[in-house]
Amino acid sequence: MALLEVRLYGDPTLRRKAEHVREVTPEIRRAIGDMVETMYSQAGIGLAAPQVGFPYCLLVMDDGKGGARALINPIITSRSGSVVDEEGCLSLPGIFGDVERSKSVTVQATDEDGLPFNLDATGMQARVIQHEMDHLEGVLFIDHFSPVARDRIKKRIQKHGFPKERRSRAFAL
Ligand code: NI
To answer: Residues 18, 47: contact at Cβ < 8 Å?
Structure first.
């Protein structure tokens, strides 16, 4: 396995729409292993393939039980509730902000053995799935902010780069 370079805000790869995975090949499985290793090396709990330059509909996430799970071609089939909480992103280090997400989602996806499954997720897990699925559409969490707030962040990054401080409460996706 290998650590992959996480693309940072400004990299055009982050704005491209990911491609449907037609077959779970050995290359895809290797990409999943590398993505999981990369996610944990950066203390992340979720990572989408476009963030490491793979243009595929694929994400990995911590399962909250000491393991990681891959979701290939995920589709949200139902959602309910809404909750606002703070998010961060491995592609925007040091930037955090509140995002409204569905409280619970049911997602349909393919696993790394090529088998379909359904996952009911709530709370943090539901948030991770929605954040990573945004990446598959070329959407970043700051796109959910007001135009004024987003502009402030863009200007700050252009002028000073990414902030160095890390906050303990927030998590990176
Ligand atoms: Ni992210």
So the answer is: no
So what's the pLDDT on residue 66? Answer: 86
Does pLDDT of 36 surpass 80?
yes
* pLDDT for residue 139: 98
Known catalytic residue at 5: no
Q: Which of 5, 19, 86, 132 is catalytic?
A: 132
Q: In CATH, which of 3.40.50.300, 3.90.45.10, 1.10.1040.10, 3.30.428.10 is domain 12-160?
A: 3.90.45.10
pLDDT of residue 1: 77
Chain centre distance of CA 79: 18
Hey, what are 2's tokens?
């290998």
Retrieve residue 156's tokens. Answer: 């700050």
Structure tokens at 69: 């799970």
Contacts 24+ apart (CB under 8 A), 32-39: 32/58, 32/60, 32/70, 32/112, 33/1, 34/1, 34/2, 34/3, 34/4, 35/4, 35/60, 35/70, 36/60, 36/68, 36/70, 37/1, 37/2, 37/3, 38/3, 38/4, 38/6, 39/68, 39/90
CA distance linking residue 97 with residue 74, whole number of Å: 25
Please give the distance, rounded to the nearest whole angstrom, from the Cα atom of residue 46 to the centre of ligand 1.
7
